[in-house]
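Section handout 9: paired folding examples.
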Amino acid sequence: MKLPHRRSFLLLAAGTVALPAMAPFCWAQIYPARPVRLIVPFAPGGQNDIIARIIGQWLSERLGQQFVIENRPGAATNIGTEAVVRAPPDGYTLLLAATANAVNATLFNRLNYDFIRDIAPVASINRIPGVLEVHPSFQAKTVPELIAYAKANPDKISIATPPKGTAGYMAAELFKMMAGINIVHVPYVVAPAMLTDLLGGHVQVAFDGISSSFEHIRAGKLRALAVATAARLEALPDIPTIGDSLPGFEASGWCGIAAPRNTPIGIIDKLNREINAGLADPKIKARLADLGVIVLAGTPAEFAKHIADETEKWGKLIKTANIKPD
């Protein structure tokens, strides 16, 4: 992201918080007056979809209207994202924004929208720790063993990931670059299909979000070599970080709620308060903990900064590794 673009985005996000009271705030008093669509630009059953349904159910109970989950996968999340960008800015069409949105800003040269310009950050929800995992039959039991095997057998290891542009995909690219290894990268169209093949032994190594793999790891059906976070996870305290072997490595996914640009600040603030209340609720916290994710509550301005930081980080990797869209 160009620096002036980034600075303008952050100033706009911060400025909305300080706007004086005005007529649009009245809209928040009656919002929502009808069901709200929460568009998830991923297929059903994946980690982001699960989290969207948890938050959607919470908002439905708190606000007295249904928050209907609408899965709109395709084109690396661009189809669902564009549907929200083009929707009326009235709070009745929301987006489950995720890592792919920050990645796509650089990955695609020509999009029909500018994510940072055309969305209004509402609330971050969580970080989704990535995990480097293998089928139990695979011989490498540590990251150094995997790297050594890959160097001794270039292009003989296939590493599966969710679709191009997702956190798992970018983590694998970062791993390849930092480890200096040649491995065959196999991005799946949908993450659940990748997990099915990994469990069946059709692929041996994968990068995935912990949400969808956690129970399989605990049951011994998959073996976690390392987590992609900067520190060890409370959910998997015995599993080292990739950074223990490759200092500086960190690649977490994330998701949150966004709205079309120009959505009234009163509605954004109302949604932010309710989402943060959910993230502080013991039952919601327990459900997220069961998924192995890390709660990431904050203000709309803080979410805007997070999006800007992620866009810059992955943009650099895309350019360095010369990653192209399919």
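Moving on to protein 2 of 2.
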Amino acid sequence: MLARGEFVGVILAGGRGSRMFPFSENFPKPLLPVCNKPLIAHQLEIMRALGIVEIFILIGYKGYQITTALGDGSAFGVRITYVEQTEVLGIAHAIGRMERYIDRPFLLFLGDIFLIPDDLQSMLVLYHAQGQGAILGVKEEADPAAIRKNFAVILDESGLVQQVIEKPRRPPNRLKGVGLYIFDPDVFDAIRRTPRSAMRDEYEITDTIQVMIDRGMPVRAAPCVKNDVNITSPVDLLECNLIEVKAFPRQRLIGNNTTIHSHAEIETCVIGANVQICHPIRLRNSVIFDNTLVDAKTGFDGFVLTPEAVVNCRYEQEGVGAVC
């Protein structure tokens, strides 16, 4: 049985997310909405369900918006401490900023990754039995392109992680890291031994993990998610919302104080609060942010609409890109 308080939570929410333009002009990525709830709120709820109530959030770009939205965490049943990120030098460097605050094992989320959990409790149990080192959240991934965007995990015959490869050109297997970790505080020693990478001139977390492995610290992998989406573009944001809509079709997908024309057709959409849809148009597979006026007389399919912009994600998927 895991003791309450055995683990704390950490969320890295300091990145700018320039590839999320035009949304990045007005939102830090962790506040982008997934089914009318900020992405980071989903992560807080996952941690709370695991019994993790003390959470540290690293903030940077537009961090004041995150502190305003989440407050002290009491609305989510947790206690939040904010730590400011002063430089953007990679994930390992960002984790290193937490050293003075953390004295026990911690569950780490990257603030721009949407996860659908399977059995996250298994990660905590596995670490509890191991007692040190690290646990990496992984997923069997059929799409090699998805592994190339993340990192590959290679196990030895005993099941320990032998090697991690950042963004492999040729994935060695189907085991993909999903941006979810448990670390012992000894990770901070490994971070100090982590050099900047040749690939991006940053302190890569995969290099830190390899330092831990090479120093003889146990690192294991835990298959613990059904799905994961790294939100790097508007297409990814739309995908997260549509995944949730299809998985939970009965949840509330229309925000408060929203007005929809009586003859408008809505199919597989998420519509925020204080939205006005003025004409009898057809909306399919789309997301509308809070406070958006939709005055168009033609419909939308595969779009994200905000008060400032209309993004055609179908063009985005084809590599063309279209912001109206």
